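Quick one: Polyketide cyclase from Acrocarpospora corrugata, structure tokens please.
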Amino acid sequence: MAANRSIARSGRTEVTVDAPVDAVWRVVSDVTRASEWSHECHRVTWLPGTTKAAPGARFRGSNRSGRLQWSRVCEIFAFDAPREIAWRTVPTTLQPDSTDWRITLEPTGDQTRIVQTFQVTSMPRWLDWILTRMNPLHIDRAEALTDDLARIATIAAASPHRTDPKPSTTTS
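--- reply ---
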């Protein structure tokens, strides 16, 4: 029962997809595309002065879970193309919790392993008590997050796989 449990403090999900790292990276590195694959995030906008992902870049994610809706400012703290992007929710007076999210891509031949992790870095007990009751879907997020990765895989596999053009040579 939700009353005796608490919000998951960490999690790890992974899928291996039939798409090259480059195609998957184009989906996950553009955080404004999160609404295409996330079960919860339905809109992402860059904050003023930011137009692309880089360490220190901030964006606002608007989320929905059941009847609950909220938004959070997030800050990218790791960006290593085409391997890793990581961001954290920025704590505020009204939302004092913070969670680090990380997506890592690992090439496996012609496929890509997508690994998503999250770690709650701060969560006051009172907020955990409230969120457990208001949003019990956050008690165990493994299935929903795995489904998110499967949606990333579908999008990446459907996108044209760009390859680096070969330099042209001319002989006379």
